[in-house]
């Protein structure tokens, strides 16, 4: 159960995975819960006790989050994960047909064409040509429409990120978040530059400066 996430992470084309073992005090504040549920705030010792009280089936998908960085002195071991293990798509997914939609399965994944051909509800016409999506993004004004269009670009292996670079200055934080998600598949150098710009959040800085001016006035 320790590395149960590694197989799902590997599915998203991570080139190399390592497991970092670290030790924290029992009273450290963490959150714990099942995958997809709202996590609860507990101590590290309480999280371990809760996990060990579960059945093997319930353990799949249980996760603990540490809301702070790990100090170098807390690291005990680093292990290379040569053969990722665990579940794919979602915990306890074995025996269920995978969802063939573009949000769950990207082009190029194992047996993706066969899965989509057998699907009774998947419509290949749902995926619009990339150029059509980019052209609509050039003139789209509504935030909801922009987010939907960016979601269509996620993981599709395009290189012309400059055509959506203007969205890094969009005033809606939800649009900027969708842009960061959509950059997977774009030119890595250009995508890294855009992500760095999104981290600095210049729009937020401008809004805060404007608010400060208004307060002073």
Q: How is this fold's topology laid out?
A:
Layout: H1 6-11, E1 18-22, E2 29-34, E3 40-43, H2 44-52, H3 56-59, E4 62-65, E5 75-80, H4 112-118, H5 130-139, H6 143-153, H7 173-182, H8 188-200, H9 202-216
Antiparallel strand pairs: 1-5, 2-3, 2-4
Task: Summarize this entry quickly.
By secondary structure, this protein is α+β, with helices and mostly antiparallel strands. Helix content is 39%, strand content 12%.
Order the strands across the largest sheet as they lie in space. Answer: 3-2-4
Distance between the termini: 58 Å
Mean pLDDT: 77
The general outline is globular
Q: What is the total tally of β strands?
A: 5
Biggest beta-sheet profile: 3 strands, antiparallel
Rg over CA atoms, rounded to whole Å, is: 21 Å
Strand content: 5-15%
Based on secondary structure, the structural category is: alpha+beta
Which blocks of ≥5 consecutive residues have pLDDT under 50?
Answer: 205-217
Tags for this entry?
217 residues, alpha+beta, 3-stranded antiparallel beta sheet, two-stranded antiparallel ribbon, 12% strand, globular
Characterization of this structure:
The chain starts with 5 loop residues before the first helix and ends with a helix. Strand 2 (29-34) and strand 3 form a beta hairpin. Helix 6 packs parallel to helix 7 (173-182). The protein is globular. The chain has helices at residues 6-11, 44-52, 56-59, 112-118, 130-139, 143-153, 173-182, 188-200, 202-216; strands at 18-22, 29-34, 40-43, 62-65, 75-80. The protein has 9 helices and 5 strands; from the N terminus they run H-E-E-E-H-H-E-E-H-H-H-H-H-H. With 217 residues, the chain is α+β, with helices and mostly antiparallel strands. The protein has a 3-stranded antiparallel β-sheet. The protein has a two-stranded antiparallel ribbon with strand order 1-5. The protein is 39% helix and 12% strand. The longest helix is centred in the last third of the chain and has 15 residues, at 202-216.
């Amino acid at each position: 159960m320790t590395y149960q996430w590694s197989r799902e992470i590997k599915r998203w084309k991570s080139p190399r995975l390592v497991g970092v073992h670290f030790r924290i005090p029992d009273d450290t504040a963490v959150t714990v819960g099942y995958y997809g549920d709202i996590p609860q705030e507990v101590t590290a010792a309480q999280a371990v006790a809760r996990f060990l009280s579960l059945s093997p089936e319930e353990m799949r998908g249980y996760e603990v989050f540490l809301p702070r960085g790990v100090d170098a002195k807390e690291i005990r071991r680093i292990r290379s994960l040569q053969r990722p293990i665990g579940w794919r798509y979602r915990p306890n997914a074995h025996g269920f047909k995978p969802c063939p939609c573009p949000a769950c399965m990207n082009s190029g994944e194992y047996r993706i064409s066969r899965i989509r051909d057998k699907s009774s509800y998947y419509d290949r016409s749902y995926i619009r040509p990339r150029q059509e999506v980019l052209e609509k993004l050039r003139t789209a004004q509504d935030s909801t429409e922009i987010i939907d269009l960016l979601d269509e670009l996620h993981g599709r292996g395009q290189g012309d990120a400059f055509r959506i670079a203007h969205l890094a200055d969009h005033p809606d934080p939800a649009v900027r978040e969708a842009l960061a998600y959509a950059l997977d598949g774009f030119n890595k150098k250009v995508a890294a530059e855009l992500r760095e710009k999104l981290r600095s959040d210049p729009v937020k800085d401008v809004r805060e400066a404007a608010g400060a001016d208004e307060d002073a006035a």
